[in-house]
Design brief:
The chain is built from four helices and eight strands. By secondary structure, it is α+β, with helices and mostly antiparallel strands.
Length: about 170
């Protein structure tokens, strides 16, 4: 008798600041659906300034997915998608422009603290470009370490970046 793999829910942040930005986000969603699992919710897509470095603006969004992969294997699959969409390994210690950035924010498997993976994402509470899209799909989600909802995290966030909704909409079916 086969045992059924548990379904893991992940919340993922997507970002792109290399043209064509929207197409990179869209293609990432298509590849996530094909290779990792089903997308249950997606936020609006926002234009945001680069955070932590000077560069062209990003498009950012968040999605929730269900997968039979464990969180570590989902990370490996997300990194493969990044490579497929043209992301190059980081050259220096600072942030860089990139065609796609896929970060696991939360996992229903719990907390992780490895060199290659920290969940919840350690800086999400400091970044409006993550919190505002996250608010669209999980306003009452409670951060397991800070014990605050997404809305509460946004209220206490010191990031003053201007986050603007765009007219882009995902179509990943």
């Amino acid at each position: 008798m086969k045992t059924k793999k548990p379904i893991i829910e992940l919340i993922i942040s997507l970002g792109s600041n290399i043209t064509p930005r929207f197409e990179h986000l869209q293609e990432a969603c298509i590849l996530i659906k094909k290779n990792i699992g089903s997308i249950n919710k997606s936020s609006l897509i926002y234009e945001t300034p680069a955070w932590g470095f000077i560069s062209t603006p990003f498009l950012n969004a968040c999605i929730t997915i269900e997968t039979s992969l464990n969180t570590k294997n989902a990370l490996i699959a997300l990194q493969e998608i990044e490579k497929e969409l043209g992301r190059k390994p980081k050259i220096g210690p600072t942030y860089e422009a990139r065609p796609i950035d896929l970060d696991i924010l939360f996992s229903s498997e719990g907390l992780f603290n490895y060199k290659s993976l920290i969940v919840p994402h350690p800086l999400l509470h400091e970044r409006k470009f993550v919190l505002i899209p996250l608010l669209d799909i999980a306003p009452n989600y409670t951060h397991p370490l800070f014990h605050k909802t997404t809305q509460q995290l946004l209220t206490t966030c010191h990031d003053s970046s201007e986050i603007k909704p765009t007219k882009h909409q995902f179509t990943y079916t």
